[in-house]
Every structure is written in C-alpha cells, then in structure tokens.
Design goal:
By secondary structure, the chain is α/β, with parallel strands linked by helices. It is built from 19 helices and 19 strands.
C-alpha cells in the first residue's frame, strides 16, 4: 500500500480552520506556522511507482484539498462551499494581520450581515460543510480582533453552536467558544452567556454548574432530538406555565421522559374546589417570569419578584445525575445536579412543590390518592320521556356561545360551530373565502416551520413565482389545465381600461415554474434542482 504524508503551512491564527478540517476526518497532517501563502503538500511513496508529490496553494486550495481527504463526509460538495470559503478568505483573513480601524470593523460587520441574509437553517449550504467550519472560525477571530460583539441573533446562534461543536478539535477554537462548558465562575462560561442574569445568580450563590451553547430549540422534543445527552441518567426539562383563576399561577417542570396528566394536577397539589388550569400566553409569561416561550426553565423562577408563581417539580428529576435547563434563552443550557438545583431554589427563597407524576392519579387512573371511597349510587327510578327544557334551549340559542349541534347529529354544522366559536376562522363577504384568525394561522405556522426544517435537510430551497399567468403560457399547457379550465379566474381590466389579453390568476403553479426551469437547466450539471414554493392558487368555485 502507498504511504501518504501531509504537511501544511499557513499564517496564524487562521490556520486553525485548516487544522479542524483535518482533525474532523481523523487524518494526520503536520501543520506549521508561516507568513507565506498557505500551502498543502501531499507526498505519496509507492513501492512500484515511486514517490510523487502534489501541492495545493492559497486558502481555498488548501481548504478544498483537506476537505476531500475523506470524500464520503461531503465537506466540499458544491460551488457554494467554495464561494463562501473564498469570500471569507478575501474579506476576513486580511483583518487578522492588519491594525484595527473603523474600516476593518465595517468589513467584519458587513460580512456578518451577509451571513445573516444567507442563513435559512442551521448551516450556510444546507448541511455542515467546510464553508461553515472556515467561515465561523475566521469570523470569530476577526470579531475578537476588532472587538465586534454585537451581531444578529441568527448569526450569534449559528456561531455559538458551531464553535461549541468544534472546540474539541482545536484549542484555538475552544478559546473562541469561551472555554465551552465550565463550572461556576464567569471565566469558563461561553462568551454569549457572560451577561446572563441567571448565570450571574448561579455565580452569586457559589454553585457548581456547566453552561454550554447548542442548536436553537423551541420545544423539549427538539431538545431531545438535537441536543443529545451522554447518559440516560441526564435529562432535559419540559416546562409549562399555567394559570388558574381561583388557584393562581404554576410553573410545572418535569423530565422529558415523564408523562404528565394536566387534569390530575389539581388533585396532586391538593387544590380545593374546581381546578381549571390553562396555559398562559406569551405576554403573561414575559410579565411574570421575564422570559420568552421556548426559553423557560426552573432557574427563571427567581424572576418572580412578587412570589405569585408556585414552582412544581417532577419528583423523577431528583433521581437523575444531572438536569439540563435553559438560562432564559433556548440556544443554551445549564447542567447541574438535583442537589445544586435545590440549593439554588433554597438560596433564592423558593419552596417548590415536589410531585410524583407517575402515581396512579397523575396517570389518569382510578383512585384519588387518598380520597374517600364514593358511596354506591342508588338505582335510578324509571322515568317517562325527558321533557325538553325550553328555557335552557332558548337561552343557549340566544347567546350562541355554545355548540348548537352534536357531532353525531349533523357533522357539517358541528364542524362549522367548532372552527368559528373557537375563533379559528371568520367569514368573509365573498362566498368561499375565510379569514384565518391567529389560532388557526399559528397551526399553519407550526406545520410550515416543521416542513421547512425537514425539506432543508434534503437540500430543498424555498422560492416564489408570480401570482399571474399569461394566457399564452396557460394555453401551452392545455392538457394540464383542461380539468379545471372552467374554474380559472381571469383579470380583464386595469383601472377603467380593458387589457389587450386577459391574465389568469394562478390556478396551479406548474405553468409558471416549468418555463423558468427550462431556462435555468441547460445540462446535467444544473441538476438536481430542488425547489419548494409556498403559495395560494385560485380556482373559481365560489357562489354569490
């Protein structure tokens, strides 16, 4: 077998990006610092063919060759990667060797803005590539050199999560990441958490903890999926903020593996009378705990200065070695033992209610956790036909605040009641058109955001094509539109004048998109083309 040895020389500190590329592929490369143009030399010694030497030069050439040492990892798959590395090497690396000036600060800020405009997911090119590795390291070095600390939240999250993931491969990167996870004391806390109020509180209390940055996660389910924990004896938390008109406010914190029955919560807390727990909205959450949705954790209970909120902890949390929870932001977590969490609450003057959600009553089973047995019901006497309560029916029909129909009696009318009385939709003055109110649009938002995340993993990008279709273009696809030709809506006037040719309002997107594709795709090199469009289509099925 031939023996291949690699050596690379490049200027400090930017050489750190090349070092990480090599270590990610577990390839041994001899690195040395040099003020000259970066170069990578590969020497192959073959017992028959002899010795051959290949050399790459410049930042892009070295990064490309290092990224392709293990092709199956796909670190350098397309022209986008090369474009990003070249742009970063031309703009950011010169900053590292120059004297700081306002012009250089502007260069760094402009490049961060460019990244912000290009990031549509976790990575610059849809998946982790050499572009993310080189750009994030060089950007972080340039920001440190110029004292630039404020970038957009999107860029900050991207930068923090990548540096945290790459720090095991380079001491220089670990320094840029702020030392990564560290115990109490601001010196070891990630730079993005240096001014965090809860981190400061942990330090004031002298508690042991670790703080780290990670991928932004809106839900506990996303945390479990994207921020893997090293052991089953560690857990993320799921946090729910409830309000009850009679009993007040509750922050419920449980392990992600725990199943909680909200209907049984009142019984577990020994609340008297009727219990009607409802999730509080974002504005109320911000008012009481000074935290945004998705960023909640047990540590934020200290923000409840008026002591109105009752903290409810899952008893199962105390059986884990470590608990991970958010410190007011959902791209970071704090890792601490259950004992440290309890000490934190004690020093903050918080006495939580510790509840066993695994009990029979919590699971929604029979029994009331100590309730007295119910007396045997007496057999009911046979009665004649039930008389309709006309007053009650009249009142119900008068207010229109309750469902007027039963599902098994008239499904269409029942369904209409459900979506209108729940404030999902409102009717419009054109038949067939509806107003999507915030509740229903939120459902659509969640579906769309989930779907976008999934198709981005496949390399699919979003785009948008015009709403209008010319008559000529639509008629070219007669076979395609024949089935719904009677439903096409046409624009025939512009102001007071008639249009020379009517214009169709998009009945389907293919007739608009395919001609463009034929212009863009000239050979196999332009494939695959992976696009998605979120849009409305109009088919005239309305009745006036």
């Amino acid at each position: 077998m031939p023996l291949v040895s690699y050596s690379c020389s490049a200027p400090e500190p930017a050489i750190a990006a090349l070092e990480v590329l090599a270590k990610l592929q577990d390839v041994e490369v001899s690195f040395s610092s040099s003020d000259a143009t970066p170069s990578l030399k590969a020497v192959t010694e073959h017992p028959i063919l002899g010795t051959t030497t290949t050399e790459s030069s410049a930042w892009v050439g070295c990064a490309r060759s290092l990224s392709q040492l293990v092709p199956s990892l796909g670190l350098w798959e397309n022209a986008q990667v090369e474009s990003w590395v070249e742009s970063a090497s031309n703009n950011l690396i010169p900053v590292l060797s120059a004297d700081v000036s306002d012009d250089l600060v502007k260069v760094v800020n402009d490049f961060a803005t460019k990244i912000d405009g290009s990031l549509s997911g976790e990575y610059l090119t849809g998946k982790l590539s050499a572009a993310d590795i080189c750009v994030v390291i060089w950007l972080a070095q340039a920001m440190e050199k110029c004292g630039v600390s404020e970038v957009s939240e999107k860029v900050s999250s991207w930068k923090s999560s990548l540096l945290a993931a790459l720090k095991p491969y380079s001491g220089a990167v670990a320094k840029l990441a702020g030392g990564g996870a560290a115990s109490s004391g601001a010196g070891g806390v990630p730079a993005d958490l240096a001014d965090n109020a809860l981190i400061a509180k942990l330090n004031d209390f002298g508690l042991e903890y670790e703080a780290y940055m990670h991928t932004l996660c809106m839900t506990a389910e996303e945390l479990v999926e994207n921020v893997k924990l090293p052991s089953e004896k560690e857990t993320h938390t799921k946090n729910l903020f409830f309000k009850d008109k009679k009993h007040g406010l509750f922050l419920v914190v449980h392990a992600t593996a725990t199943t909680m029955n909200t209907k049984q919560l009142g019984k577990l807390l020994n609340l008297d009378g009727k219990v009607n727990m409802r999730l509080a909205d974002a504005a109320f959450l911000d008012e009481k705990l000074k935290v945004k949705p998705g960023c909640v954790g047990p540590l934020c209970i200290v923000n409840d200065e008026s002591k109105e909120v009752k903290l409810v902890l899952d008893e199962a949390l105390m059986s884990y070695d470590y608990i991970h929870s958010h410190p007011l932001r959902n791209d970071a977590s704090v890792k601490m033992t259950p004992a440290a969490l309890q000490e934190y609450l004690s020093k903050a003057g918080i006495e939580p209610a510790v509840v066993d959600f695994s009990s029979e009553s919590a699971a929604g089973g029979g029994g009331g956790g100590g309730d007295k047995p119910k007396p045997t019901a007496k057999p009911k006497e046979a009665k004649g036909p039930k008389k309709e309560n006309k007053d009650k029916k009249k009142n119900k029909e008068g207010t229109k605040l309750a469902l007027q129909w039963k599902k098994d009696e008239n499904f269409p009318q029942w369904y209409t009641d459900v979506i209108t009385l729940s404030e999902m939709i409102s009717y419009y003055d054109i038949s067939g058109c509806y107003i999507l109110r915030p509740w229903s649009y939120k459902i659509w938002d969640l579906i769309q955001n989930w779907f976008n995340g999934e198709i981005e993993k496949l390399g699919v990008e979003n785009c948008y094509f015009p709403l209008f279709v010319s008559q000529d273009r639509l008629e070219k696809e007669k076979d395609h539109v024949e089935g719904f030709a009677p439903e096409v809506a046409w624009v025939t006037k512009s102001g007071d004048g008639e249009l020379a040719k009517p214009i169709a309002i998009r009945p389907t997107s293919e007739t608009i998109m395919y001609p463009a594709f034929s212009d863009w795709i000239k050979s196999h090199r332009d494939l695959p083309l992976k696009l998605n469009q979120w849009s409305n289509v109009v088919r005239w099925e309305f009745k006036f």
